[in-house]
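Example 3.2
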Amino acid sequence: MDIEFIRSYYPMYVTAAKMTLGIAFFGIILSLIIGLVCSMIKKMNIPVLKTIVNIYIELSRNTPLLIQLFFLYFGLPKMGIVLSSRTCATLGLAFLGGSYMSEAFRTGIDNVASIQTESALSLGFTRWQVFVHIIMPQAIATSIPVLCANIIFLIKETSVFSAVALADLMYVAKDLIGIHYKTDEALFMLVISYLIILLPISLIFGWLERRMRYAGFGNTSTVPGN
């Protein structure tokens, strides 16, 4: 292991990590918004929009992110739409993540007891008020574990961004291996970089999940007297 090589080139990984996290942040935010909107459409059972959402979810979940990036980066210019590498990466991540987030929110919504909706409607709430003030807060709380897992999954998926000429962590590692033939050192720094990014996020999400469980959310064994 060439320690001097690692000292010389680790700043490149730091720069690549910052760019990767920046794209991941905006992609994940967009995916949460898309997922929330899609789950609302499915819950409200809007006929045409529900069909579109179902098609989107199946298309997104059953095609690799790499293929989606190729379509955005190489396919759209054939139709006169040219996007930057960063924009393609952000949209690709949002497109993939939106379907996973939608299913996570849907699961949370399904876990809310229907009697709560009926009680709220009997008290004079509109269906929109029921959804916003009663269903969604509980659905989001119970969906926390799945949402956290999806976020970690999407961050790991950023490793394919190099395919659209983005100097992400994987791109830097492959570049150093190709120029200096320092495979062990380059891959070691790559693994450490992802570990530094993902381990704190995983620990924070684990803590958050435990807090939500202690608060009573997501507890399915809720029969009184048990």
